Amino acid sequence: MNKENQSRKASRFSAEGAVRIVPLHKPETQALAPASAPKLVYRGGALITSVEVFTIFWGGKWQQDPYTGIPAQLNQFFDFILTSALLDQLSEYSVTGQSIGHGKRTGTITLGTPALSASVTDQAIQQFLQKEISSNTVFPQPSPNTLYFVFVSPGTTVTQAGSSSCQQFCGYHDAIGSRILYAVMPFPDCSGCLGSLAQLDALTSTSSHELCEAITDPIPGHGWYDDANGEIGDICAWKSKKDGNFEVQLEWSNRANKCL
Ligand SMILES: [Zn+2]
Question: For residue 137, how far is its CA from the centre of ligand 1 (angstroms)?
Fold first, then answer.
């Protein structure tokens, strides 16, 4: 749970702030049972119907061993996942006029500058994104389908609304205004964001969590949301499976009444 910005605070949908983070891994025995039976309810807002993912690998460490191979692996993950069963299962959340289908990855960039220090705020990430979108021709212009995935390089903590990566969260998605949709993935160099997974598996699992949430609830709390349990991925956090060769998280299905 996080504080929202002022305009969203005024929304009747999320007076307390919509959940949009991947929480830290907790051993099964410590995991809390859901407060009430999960059920996602549609709040009438926009969905992402044909997601166009643009990946951004920000920070100099992406160009240093042993991390240099990870961006290509994550791009392969998106190329596979965006036309896989994972996206098919989201179609139950299509609504009149907004049919959720497959997506694609439209590009990628690795940026060592501006340099990252030991910590970066969500506000700085938003400013970075806005500046690059307006000045860097490699970046696509935002559309209702565009989803910017920012992978922050190892060694940098992300702070957002008073919370920190590896302390309170392992990733999140949000919107700048309602125009720029983005997800932020800190590097999982802590046990709380690895769970029992290998580093790449933790990254793909957490990315799938945020991807499915961004598609079904791009402006947190305005799409498919459960007041007691949060977004589609929150209900099934840290339960994962293989989709092709990739580790992905289970997602809540209203139709099946379980995590699939
Ligand atoms: Zn979540």
Answer: 31
Q: Cα(171) to centroid of ligand 1, in Å?
A: 8
| Domain 45-232+254-259: which CATH number of 3.40.390, 3.30.40, 2.60.40, 3.30.310 | 3.40.390
Residues with beta carbon < 5 A to ion ligand 1? Answer: 213, 231, 233-234
Cα–Cα distance for residue pair 123/3, rounded to 1 Å: 13
Measure 205 CA to ligand 1 centroid, in angstroms.
Answer: 11
CA distance 173 to 148: 10
pTM: 0.91
Q: What is the pLDDT of residues 91-103, one digit of tens each?
A: 999 999 999 999 9
- Residue 151 one-letter amino acid: F
Distance 21 CA to ligand 1 centre (A): 4
